[in-house]
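FW: tagging you since you asked about this chain on Friday. Here's the raw sequence from the shared folder, copied in full. Didn't touch anything.
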Amino acid sequence: MKLQKLLVQGLLWRGLYFVSVMLVNVVLSRYLQASATGWVFYISNIFGFIQLLLGCCLDAGITFFASGQIIAHRKLVWFASLWSFGVTIVSFAGGYIFFHLNDSFADADQHQYFFFGICYITGFTLTNTATVLFYTKNNFYLPNIILIILNLALIIIIPKTIVAASDAYAGKILYTYFFFFLLQGILLMLSFATKYKAVNKFDFPSSIETKNLIRFSLIALAANVIFYLEYRIDYWFVHRSPVCTDGDLGNYIQVSKLGQMMLVLPQIIASVVYPQSASGINRKELNKTVMIISRLFSQLFLIIFVVIFFTGHWFFITVFGETFNKMQVPFLIIIPGIFSLSVLSLLSAYFSGKGNLGVNVRGAAIALIVMMAGNYFLVPMYGIIAAAAVSTCCYSLNAAYSLRQFYKDYDVNLFDFFKWRRSDYSWLLSLLKNENE
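HL: got it, structure written out here
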């Protein structure tokens, strides 16, 4: 299938999914308000980091070996299912030991954290592996339609009235919210196994295949752990800052989540770029496409900056509620950094598909060191404004490193990533034409 056709499918279905995610975010934020929403997203990021470690970025290895047809899909389904079961067992045992040794939590809080963590960690492990299996089959429709339906159901369940975080019904909503992570993972894995008849016969990767898969995934894990800390360690500094309130944390995490939503398009395209790069098909077209998209992104982010500059304060309060009144300035500051991440996501997917994960690891490590130093010295004094500024500087540094490596390895003109061209609009129009067809 042509690269442009794959991009259209990815943009359409992944785009609709992320719209549904955004709607869940809005409805939940208006229901819980800034302080409680900040807490939910804060612990979700802790669970996310644990999932990243236990999942070992198996989805990256699956994408590489499935796209290159090195390991059969049916083998990867069995391996991923067994791995997810192991993640559940380890999470259960780890949670039990943690709460057994730590008596600072009430029994009700222990049960709550325990349930939330198991659902989130196991659910995302299954979700990540199942979705990349679908994508290596060039199937963007089925996994995303399942996710969209579940998110719409969650939107219907969450009340549309504002309540205090201590409200009894709010606790039930949070249990439902986290349970849906587990539900989506199970449904996605079952759907793939059923559609592609991947479990009709037990077939496990050979010892050599398993060794290569785990080795590749662990290298990807090193890069993604650093990336994860680079993108989210500022939450911890804001949470600990003496000049920041719980409301400030909620506002800042919401800014960060919106920034991540702005990365939807780059991530969708990266989900196409990665398997295509790994397969070795359309390499020349892929290089050209990455640069065209980067130039279009620079224009898109400039438009977003101008719109938020004039309407941001009103927009954020209208959408999320009165308690989210400190989002505009940090959001404006972080937009250039999000643009840098959009370029970086394409380059990282490209290097990963080539098997050159070292570029991603080194660039992220340099940025993380600067991120920690900047947050340590500035956030305790200047709060969320400093956190946003430090993030933009570090994201830009990371992107600059990857651009430099891309230039050295593939001898391209770096200005081609940023110099606007009229021909790019023709490319975009042809993409839209493919969508209509």
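FW: The longest helix spans residues 357-410.
HL: agreed, and Residues 341 and 418 are 14 Å apart (CA to CA).
FW: great, closing this out.
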